[in-house]
Amino acid sequence: MNKEVRKTFGWSAIIFISLIPVFLLFFAGPETTDFAGYSGITQGLGEIAGLVGITMFALTFVLSTRIKWIEDIFGGLDKVYIVHGILGGTALILILSHPIFLVLKYVPIYLPLAATYLLPSLYWAVNFGIIAVLGLIALLFITLFTKVKYHTWKFTHEFLGLVFIFAALHAFLVRGSISKDYIFHGYYLYIAVISAIGILAFSYSLFLKNRLMKNAVYSILKIEHKKDMWTIEMSPEHKPIDYKSGQFIFVRFYNEKLSKEAHPFSIASKSGSKNIRIIVKALGDFTKDLEELKVGDKVSVEGPYGRFNFKNQENKNQVWIAAGIGITPFLGMVEELESSPNFKIELYHTAKDQSELIGYDFLSLLSSKLKSFRYIPWNSKEKGRRIDTKDISQVSGNLKEKDFFLCGPENFKEDMIEQLTNRGIKKSHIHEEAFNFR
Amino acid sequence: MRFKKLKTTVAIALIIFILVIGSIVIIGLVQAAKNQNHTPQRLTVTNVNQANSPQVNKNTNNVQTQVQTQQQSQIIFHPMIRTMAS
Prior knowledge:
By secondary structure, chain A is of the alpha/beta class. Helices cover 49% and strands 17% of the residues of chain A. Chain A has 3 domains: 3-212; 216-305, Beta Barrel (Elongation Factor Tu (Ef-tu), domain 3); 314-433, 3-Layer(aba) Sandwich (Rossmann fold), CATH 3.40.50. By secondary structure, chain B is mainly α. Chain B starts with a helix and ends with a helix. The chains are: A alpha/beta, B mainly alpha.
């Protein structure tokens, strides 16, 4: 099964599971006449929005378990987190519309009645729902619209499990104590299954994942610090992890001055090497503290994750485009080109200035040595602008015959994907590394 | 920026949610407060004798009891139950 088919299957499965309450409502629900009229329609839409929302909410926890077969379906953990984000946002929108549709039923009757409906009451079944909605708004607002520190965000995000428990309690209790209306046969069974899936997946991620996953222990062999970039080479204490270049790992440094939180970094060394090299740019709060690292510090490595490797594609005529620190996964891949003569690679690296052209000397040397590899550095400061597809087509010729690998800041990638698709390149021929998980 | 479209959609949904829910709660509570203030004023007492008469006292007590019952029912009963009961 190819990448696109797997991805379509994954999305179809998510949409189908999310829509199960709609099918149940139609096939095991009340007579259609119950949904007739203004009151019936608003009631029905409110119930559907709430049930589909809580189903999607439960699925977001399943997607964040980092289970390998889910990663295989969506083509890498970075892609799984994109699906997780889209699903979480959609769940929020549906859960927000749940009380809106339900309250619309009361608006034409008597507005004070509708107001009372939305406020906390003596009925905990309703109050659990209010707590869940407010909690979800607060936590997803932090995720989507604020720039808090990574470990603060991660800490707040873990409370979504608690919010889900409140939502499940609301769904369980509201029918018995308040609404008393008949939704569909097997309603309680459905809610029990969805609640169990969500709570088990969340509990696994929070309490069991780190214990069950055998993280490899490495120690720092070498640290090079240049401007705001650190090149860190690590050697395994025992068995090394089996990785491919272009993949990424979660790294936790055991240094008392650094956060114990695991952070994702692209691997910059070639497939199957005993040692792992990562290159880190001081972009966030954590990476700025890396100057505290010492040779010999222990490191816990989880992974590898991701499917960003040039050998995964049949087309051997490839263009690699990196921006800034996005060059790191390509540095490991180019080391394998000597043993992969069938590939024809053109690597474009755009950076703000000469100092940010990481690996310039090594890549220039390799370019002069290998016929199958061409290195095209792009100094934006000198050129006065960022590279675009017109520049690339002038060097690489017909772009439609090639596969594209992109890595760099999100806005750069989005811009590049838009330009490439405008030039008729199919999205299935564009492969990107999404290392920004938030 | 990752999730650009999603962020915009979520932001719009949040604004709609705050506007709809906020206006229903505020207007509803204001209306409820107005209704509570208006109901007792329907009693017009023209003179002290009338006000002290057993009939007026009975009427006043009835209205007060009605208002209290209404206030209590708003606190105790959830609208879904009241709609079903009606």
